[in-house]
Amino acid sequence: MPRTRATRQQPRPPTGTPAAPSRRTFQVLFVFVGSVLIANAIVGERGLIATRAARRDSERLASDITMLRSENARLRKDSHRLRTDPAAIEAVARDELGLLRPGEIVFLLADGPGVREAR
Q: By CB neighbour count within 10 A (0-12 exposed, 13-18 middle, 19+ buried), where does 59 fall?
């Protein structure tokens, strides 16, 4: 009679005890956790997208600060000139307030819808 090999059966855990997680379960869990971490690194609160947006805002604010500093310097210069230079004071009085020196004559030339055309 030929000898046959009997297949060996794996021992089964006794009923009532949980089975140990398989290697496949650990792989799926590892892939899931890795995917969540990568997604968080890209779109999370401190992720790549938020970091780039913050960098753009920082650059925009830096340019705004530079512009405001130059405007402040110009305004300081104008203020100093208006406090010390009589010609600057006169120019503002003439341009913005419409004031005249004594003896000056103003000619107003109107060119608009209320002016009749000369024939």
A: exposed
What is the residue-level pLDDT of the chain in tens, covering all 119 positions?
Answer: 566 666 667 666 666 666 677 889 999 999 999 999 988 888 888 888 889 999 999 999 999 999 999 999 999 999 999 999 999 998 988 888 888 888 888 887 777 676 566 55
Tokens at 58, concatenated: 């920082």
DSSP character for 114? T
Q: Could you tell me what percentage of the chain is helix, strand and coil, using 3-state DSSP and rounding each to the nearest 5?
A: 60, 0, 40
List C-alpha distances in Å: 40 to 48, 51, 104. 9, 12, 75
Retrieve residue 72's tokens.
Answer: 């402040």
Phi, psi of 18 (to 5 degrees): -70, 145
Nearest-angstrom CA–CA distance, 61 and 78: 25
Q: How far apart are the first and last CA of the chain?
A: 139
Contact of 72 with 78, CB cutoff 8 Å: no
